[in-house]
Write a structure and sequence with these properties.
The complex is a heterodimer of chains A (88) and B (405).
Chain A (H helix, E strand, L loop, with lengths): L1 H15 L20 H15 L7 H7 L3 H10 L10
Helix pairs in contact in A: 1-2, 1-4, 2-3
Chain B lengths: L5 E10 L5 H10 L5 E2 L12 E2 L21 H17 L10 E7 L4 H13 L9 H5 L3 H10 L5 E4 L5 H15 L4 E8 L4 H10 L22 E9 H6 L6 E10 L10 H14 L8 E3 L6 H15 L7 E3 L2 H4 L6 H15 L1 E2 L22 E2 L4 E7 L4 E8 L4
Helix pairs in contact in B: 2-5, 6-12, 9-10
The chains are: A mainly alpha (88), B alpha/beta (405).
Chain lengths: 88, 405
């Protein structure tokens, strides 16, 4: 089930950062991928829309706390999004 | 007054007349009007459907696609113009940049983004809007985006005074350069007002011409809105010389005033005071000026007043002046107008050609000075001024002359 979440998050990140999805791997750092602080907020808001949840983080907190693709996957896990309704 | 000279070492622009200074000047010299029918299919009930839109290709194509979500069109245009100016001047940046400033004139901020925001919220009932909304619409966005893109780390801010914004931005740069606080400045103006909401707002003022912009013509019907940006690299002359930069022209002086009267109708005294102050600052007598790029909006109120103002300041020397309104070709780009017109002035001086006022069929007898109707004129230009008299009564005039080294 975590694979489904991972695939969805990678798609969201790749779309926001205009990247080929294969480049977006759990170990990649967001800054290396060119994801800015506000891109990150947009990514989190897209996750909220797709999973119909609320993830209360602000722009500064988000860029301080989530440095890698894996950190965002863990964020998803912590909000119980594995196996949560739609998966890609 | 004696000040250290401030010189221009780079120019860049994008406008209804094309995507470079070369295209802009070539159109001005040939009297080509860039005001055309807009694509308003998605905008119902617009009474005025002409404007000065930038011709294809879309300037967006010049930037990394990843940068675009952060940019309202007014920032995008400013970056495109700044790229050209910085490239031409060869200004070294990125290695510090603390002695370089960036001052961008803006009339209206983030019009494209605000239109989209309201459409999504009020019409489509969207629950959330883009996280980039605030950074896109902030009036300082163009200056900040240029600063971030090119590594400019000195004073960076927006200057706003409606249609005089560009000239006030240039004046700000000139004074900061003279003071020694900075060595160089990326300065200009930008505007992207061709949105449904902005056009409706201007329509309500009933100053938009339905056909075209014909300044100084007896049958002029108003102004034509346009988008565009113009950016300059200004430097202390010593700084430009030390790095071996080519100098295009000298900013000889600046003058500013305010009418403190009507919101939209210009006074005669306010603009005249700005011109006099500019000539004094530039240490130029009225007989040293060969060309005036007029504010020349093509509205009933502006044109007659501007001719009276010029006569009151220049007296007998007014009859020797060449005057023109290049808004008849690039349109009224509001906060960017002064920058586009300053490029016209710099090129006019460099090439010894006065750009025309186009679309004149029958001169208004009250506009009885040489307004260079319909055809460019060759004449050596020693010095020139560019007028900007804005809504709100804010006036700013820039004097330019050939740089003697």
């Amino acid at each position: 089930m975590k694979d489904g979440l991972e695939r969805t998050l990678i798609r969201i990140i790749a779309t926001q950062a205009h990247l080929d999805p294969p480049l977006v791997v759990p170990g990649a750092t967001l800054s290396d991928l060119g994801v800015t602080s506000l891109d990150l907020v947009e990514i989190i808001m897209t996750i909220e829309d797709e999973y119909d949840v609320i993830i209360p983080v602000d722009a500064v907190e988000a860029s301080n706390n989530y440095k890698t693709v894996g950190d965002l996957i863990e964020l998803g896990v912590s909000f119980g999004l594995e196996g949560h309704k739609r998966e890609s | 007054m004696n000040h250290e000279p401030v010189v221009v070492t780079g120019t860049g622009c994008v406008s209804a007349l094309g995507h470079s200074v070369e295209a802009f000047w070539s159109a001005l010299q040939d009297g080509i009007c860039g005001l055309r029918k807009l694509d308003t299919a998605a905008w119902p009930d617009l009474k005025v459907t002409i404007g000065g839109a930038i011709p294809p290709p879309d300037p967006r194509e010049q930037l990394d696609v990843r940068r675009l979500p952060m940019l309202d069109r007014f920032s995008l245009l400013a970056i495109v113009a700044a790229q050209q100016a910085i490239a031409q001047s060869g200004l070294p940046l990125g290695d510090g940049g603390f002695r370089t400033g960036c001052f961008i004139g803006v009339g209206t901020a983030g019009a494209e983004t605000i239109d989209e925001l309201y459409r999504r919220l009020y019409l489509e009932g969207a629950k959330r809007v883009s996280v980039f909304t605030v950074p896109r619409v902030m009036p300082s966005a163009p200056a900040s985006q240029i600063s971030m893109m090119f590594g400019i780390r000195g004073p960076v801010f927006t200057v706003s005074s409606a249609c005089a914004s560009s000239n006030h931005a240039v004046a700000t740069a000139v004074w900061l350069l003279r003071s020694g606080i900075i060595d160089a400045a990326v300065v200009g103006g930008t505007e992207a007002p061709l949105t449904f909401g902005t056009l409706k707002a201007w329509e309500a003022m009933r100053v938009l011409a339905p056909d075209t912009c014909r300044p100084f013509d007896r049958h002029r019907k108003g102004l034509v809105l346009a988008e565009g940006a113009g950016v300059f690299i200004l430097e202390r002359a010593e700084h430009a010389k030390a790095r071996g930069a080519s100098v295009l022209a000298q900013i000889a002086g600046v003058g500013m005033s305010a009418d403190a009267a009507d919101l939209v109708a210009p006074t005669l005294e306010g603009p005249a005071a700005a011109i006099r102050s500019c000539l004094t600052d530039a240490n130029l007598c009225t007989d040293a000026i060969d060309y005036i790029n007029a504010h020349g909006t093509g509205t009933a109120a502006n044109d007659i007043a501007e001719i009276k103002i010029i006569k009151s300041v220049f007296g007998n020397d007014a009859s020797h002046l060449s005057i023109s309104s290049t808004k008849s070709m690039h349109g009224h780009a509001l906060g960017a107008s002064g920058a586009l017109e300053l490029i016209a002035v710099i090129e006019a001086i460099r090439r010894g050609v006065v750009p025309p006022t186009m679309n004149i069929e029958e001169l208004d007898p009250e506009c009885d000075l040489d307004v260079t109707p319909n055809c460019a004129r060759e004449r050596p230009i020693r010095a020139a001024i560019s007028n900007a008299f804005a809504f709100g009564g804010t006036n700013a005039v820039i004097a330019v002359k050939r740089f003697d080294g």
